Amino acid sequence: MAEFCLGFDEAVQGSSECAEMAKKLTEHLDAVQPKLNDHDLCTETTACLPCRKGVRDMLTRCGHDPALRPVFDRLHFSKTLRAVAED
Q: What does pLDDT average to in each consecutive run of 10 residues of the chain (87 residues)?
């Protein structure tokens, strides 16, 4: 989980424009990833912090950019993170 989140944040931070970010994130999501659905891992450790940071930055910078629509369609955001995109 932490490795996935670090890679996600790296793809966001390493992009200068939304189309480039979309490409990097799609490549990251297409790669073989561990399938973890452990709520405690996110609430009791710091493993998910890079994901939260990466998603917040992605939504703040490119929240309504059409280039990221395919990425958004593959991700599920909490109500808190969805609010960031609406600001």
A: 84 94 92 66 70 87 89 75 61
Report the alpha-carbon angle 19-22-25, nearest 5.
Answer: 150
Nearest to 57 by CA among 3, 14, 28: 14
CB-based contact 31:78 (threshold 8 Å): no
**Which pLDDT value is given to residue 87?**
56
Per the listing, tokens 């599920």 go with: 76
What's the CA gap between 55 and 52, in Å, rounded? 5
C-alpha–C-alpha distance, residues 49 and 83, integer Å:
18
Listed residue (57, 64, 71) closest to 24, CA to CA:
71
How far is CA 45 from each of CA 18, 42, 49, rounded to the nearest angstrom?
30, 6, 9
Looking at residue 38, its pLDDT comes to 60
